[in-house]
Model the fold of this input.
Amino acid sequence: MKKIILVSILLISGLSFADGNNDWQNIDQNVIKLNALNSCQGCVLRNTSFIGADLNNASLSGANLIEADLSLANLSGVNFAQANLTNANLMGADLSGAILEGAFLCNTMMPWGLDNSSCQ
Done:
């Protein structure tokens, strides 16, 4: 039920943006995929709002989460390996058991502060 609510909020509010004319459609489809399968490896989810979302144990490896807002979200056990979290906001998120090894972190707001460990 919580995932259906999340999809409804995202689709109705139009909080997902991207570059290009049809990218928003792909992002909305990827959000639906994430909610249905709890996995969206390599998906484009940039600029998407997941504020307070429950993504417990989701697989987001290779996902493009540039400028995504994951603040206050339940991200426990999420696999972020190879995910791009540049300029993402994870303030207040629960990252217990999350896999961050291999994630691209640049100007990423983490619960413990700004992380620039992957910036070049």
Q: What stands out?
A: Residues 3-24 have pLDDT under 50 and may be disordered. The two ends are 41 Å apart (CA to CA). The longest strand covers residues 108-110.
